[in-house]
Amino acid sequence: MINNNTHIVFDLDDTLYKEIDFVKSAYIYINSYINFRFNLDLSNSIKKCLDGEVIFFDLINSKLHPDQSFPIEKYLELYRFHYPEIKLSDDTTVFLDKIISHNIDFSIITDGRSISQKNKIKALGLDDLAKNIIISEETGFEKPHLNNFKILDRIYPNKKLIYIADNTSKDFLAPNSLNWDTICLINNGQNIHPQDFNLNIDYLPKIKVNYLTEINI
Known about the structure:
Elements: E1 6-10, H1 19-38, H2 46-50, H3 56-63, H4 72-81, H5 90-101, E2 106-110, H6 114-123, E3 133-135, H7 136-139, H8 147-155, E4 160-165, H9 173-177, E5 181-185, E6 207-209
Parallel strand pairs: 1-2, 1-4, 2-3, 4-5, 5-6
Helix pairs in contact: 1-4
């Protein structure tokens, strides 16, 4: 399926790493901030927040004294712009090592804020490996708009393009319309966004895999 005439394009969140790990990293970072500023340690409650039992921002403010305040703007700043403690899964590392050893290049198309997505990509060690990094805030277009995919269409007019992603509601419509191959990495139960395979065929991936290592090279 993949050969030297292929250019692979990855989504980022819940594809190259698990986004819940970014959320956990952000909660730990925010907790260290409020612990330093307010002497308030909520580390024992982080798991409940990750499980959706409690909203972390609400928890913080419920534990602060009435004369203390922690505005949502500060919370979002710390959440979005911290440098995350995240890593590639073992199967992702194996797959990337394999395509690199076969001289197959890859790029990333991702939605999100530039600083947040760049911090994630750098933390994962991909900033010097990806040939192109296309972030929605920088182009002004979010998936499923065609714009960011057309950028790579123009860069690689003679390559077979493959988009590997996870979100059926927005990831595959544009690359399908450009006749790219599309591959969905199946949710292992940890994804932030649910997957719906009962959508119109235009939204659905051509191939589904449980692990990136299932993709033939």
